[in-house]
Design brief:
Elements: E1 4-12, H1 18-29, E2 38-45, E3 58-64, H2 67-73, H3 77-86, E4 90-99
Antiparallel strand pairs: 1-3, 1-4, 2-3
């Protein structure tokens, strides 16, 4: 089975401070090891002179061991708790998943 990359871009609301942004990503990273099949989590602020970020300020990538693991993550109670914490701080979000070639 192919691994799944779960990629997202966030635009935080203007009033959200840097320490709140850091707390959001720490909360998301804390899911690794607690949700079966979630292998890793990486994130960071936009950093390119290309300027194609469309006002999104931060991005993240999660790796799941399989499409089934990703599907089980989506309704997982811990994921729902993290969404309740993070989503109210967002102006916009986009998420995109793709399978890694085997």
């Amino acid at each position: 089975m192919p691994q799944v990359k779960h990629y997202g871009c966030f635009q935080f609301k203007a009033e959200i401070a840097d320490d709140q942004i850091s707390e959001c990503f720490a909360t998301m990273a804390d899911m690794v090891g607690k949700i079966p099949g979630l292998l890793d989590f990486n994130y960071g602020p936009y950093d390119s002179a290309e300027g194609l970020n469309d006002d999104y300020t931060h991005g993240f990538i999660m790796t799941f061991e399989s499409p089934q693991a990703r599907d089980e993550y989506l309704p997982h109670s811990l994921h729902e708790e993290v969404k309740e914490f993070v989503v109210p701080k967002l102006e916009r979000v986009v998420v995109f998943d793709f399978n890694m070639p085997q």
